[in-house]
Design goal:
By secondary structure, the chain is mainly alpha-helical. 71% of the residues lie in helices and 2% in strands. Among the domains are: 85 residues; 71 residues, no CATH class; 103 residues, Alpha Horseshoe (Serine Threonine Protein Phosphatase 5, Tetratricopeptide repeat). A hairpin with a 2-residue loop joins strand 1 and strand 2. Helix 4 runs antiparallel to helix 5, helix 10 runs antiparallel to helix 11 and helix 26 packs parallel to helix 28. The C terminus is likely disordered.
Length: 520
């Protein structure tokens, strides 16, 4: 056994035990002392297997490690999701007066990005300036990426402007930076100014639009992407399908499904799950069932997506049946699965089933309920008109209730006319979200319905004094395959005149019918 044999074996390893044997032979032959490139290959092999204990032992066996070996160890800890250990190794490197190179600082910046530690990122930036490493484009790109992931858009722009050589990765990182802070206008400006684009650029802009609830713009950009011959990826398809699901845009969703089927790109289970979600939220549960039946290897997300579809349409019993089928296949549900099955029970009024599942969540599956699960239980109780029981449940929760829970109780009080409980819930809600216009309007409606005109007027005055403004509503409607967006404070539309004429006609008819509220 010699050095060449070990090199051949290192290209053939497939298990951790086999890699340990190669490591042991290298120690026995004294190779690690004289061949640091081989040691680095060993470190990279350990990283691919997701282990960090043996690599640290290996590194300690290297006499006077070069910067390349240090960088390999930093990268290894980043790859196995141990960013703090990666920064600790990098700090040891600096403390030993070893001059870092571009690759070592890029690895350190990746660690800072993972843990979103802006302070550490600035320290690494200082080291980059100290050793004049910022001229390298990969260092500039890593800095932009680190600052953008930490939502420090000002520093992101400064680094970008100072870069002498900008490549497509630089532009993409800047675009992502604006997207992270939901600045869609600046994101689009960067996108339009890019000297060249790749699939990452298109995906970033489309995803930014979807996250920012600008679904129509996302779909238009997707059409441009296809028309320009750019290859779509899983990220692209999932993003636009998610947008279609959010607004119930069935026809565009069907077109995307057709594109997926014809492209034969083998997008896999992730895209199928997104298709199921789109069909389910658009009301086509039969198509969602057809998609899941065609998935050969269903994962937890497949089952959860189908359950969420049934929950979305109030088909609680169907959701419970799917949940039962999943359990029979020995698949362990996760927190998201329980969230949707509890939501299904809530929408269908299945109180006993929901309570049973909530109790089993921790006892049988070892899952600790989160605030969302408690919210489902409160919703379940108030839908069953058990308002006092819901209040007691909230008071006994081991975690502090959030605004969603109090809002659920408040709306139920509005429906059932429980003014005392409504006032209590509203006060708690205002403490948590003093700028939310919805709670003031709900409480105003309660006072108005109870003929407490003076209290209703006080609520309006309080809103004005607190400078709480009513947020503009937004809705979408699909007509002949085209999705139209309407905003309360935006009246420009090609059919605007006809729409307002119809609206005026509806208002006149409502007045004749003796109805008080007028559409605006």
């Amino acid at each position: 056994m010699n050095y060449k044999h070990l090199q051949i074996l290192l290209r053939q390893y497939n298990t951790l035990e086999f890699l340990k044997q190669i490591h042991a032979q290298a120690v026995t032959l004294g190779i690690l002392h004289h061949h640091q490139p081989f040691a680095c290959k060993l470190l990279n092999s350990y990283a691919k297997l997701g282990t960090s204990q043996e690599p640290n032992t290996l590194f300690s066996q290297i006499q006077n490690p070069y910067i390349v070996s240090w960088t390999c160890l930093v990268n290894l800890h980043v790859q196995v999701r141990e960013p703090r250990k990666a920064l600790w190794v990098f700090s040891r490197l600096i403390c030993r007066n070893i001059e870092p190179d571009s690759y070592s600082v890029v690895a350190a910046l990746s660690a800072c990005k993972c843990i979103k530690d802006l302070a550490c990122g600035r320290i690494v930036h200082g080291i980059i300036v100290r050793f004049s490493l910022w001229f390298d484009p990969i260092v500039g790109n890593a800095l932009i990426d680190m600052y953008s992931k930490n939502k420090d858009i000002e520093s992101t722009e400064k680094v970008f402007k100072c870069m002498e050589c900008k490549d497509i990765a630089s532009w993409n990182s800047l675009l992502n930076g604006f997207a992270m802070v939901n600045d869609l206008e600046s994101s689009r400006l960067v996108f339009d100014e890019m000297p060249q684009r790749n699939s990452v650029s298109w995906n970033a802009m489309i995803t930014a639009y979807v996250r920012g609830r600008e679904i129509v713009e996302a779909l238009e950009l997707f059409r441009e992407m296809k028309a320009g011959g750019e290859c779509c990826t899983v990220i692209t398809i999932v993003a636009v399908l998610s947008g279609c699901a959010d607004i119930g845009a069935l026809d565009p969703g069907k077109c995307i499904h057709g594109y997926v089927s014809k492209s034969n790109l083998g997008f896999g289970v992730t895209v199928n799950n997104a298709l199921m979600d789109m069909y389910a939220k658009s009301g086509c549960l039969d198509m969602a069932l057809k998609v899941i039946s065609e998935i050969r290897e269903k994962d937890m997300f497949s089952w959860t997506t189908l359950i969420s579809g049934y929950a979305f349409h109030g088909k609680g019993k169907n959701a419970l049946e799917v949940f039962g089928d999943m359990i029979e296949l020995k698949m362990k549900p996760n927190e998201v699965t329980f969230l949707w099955v509890l939501s299904a029970c809530s929408h269908a009024g299945l109180l006993i089933e929901g309570q049973r599942l909530f109790n089993r969540m921790n006892k049988f599956y070892g899952l600790q309920p989160k605030i969302e699960h408690y919210g489902c239980m409160v919703d379940l109780l108030v839908r069953a008109e058990l308002l006092e029981e819901a209040k007691d449940f909230i008071e006994q929760m081991p975690i502090n209730p959030d605004a969603v829970i109090w809002r659920s109780l408040l709306r139920a009080c509005l429906v059932h006319g429980n003014l005392n409980l409504a006032e209590m819930a509203a006060k708690m809600l205002i403490e948590l979200e003093p700028d939310d216009d919805g709670v003031y309007i709900l409480l105003w409606n309660i006072y108005f319905a109870a003929n407490r005109q003076e209290d209703a007027l006080k609520m309006r005055t309080f809103m004005q004094n607190q400078k709480v403004k009513k947020k503009s509503g937004c809705s979408w409607v699909e007509v002949n395959g085209v999705t139209h967006e309407f905003k309360a404070d935006y009246v420009m539309h090609h059919a605007g005149t006809k729409i307002f004429l119809v609206l005026e006609g509806i208002n006149e008819q409502r007045k004749l019918d003796g109805q008080f509220f007028v559409l605006e």
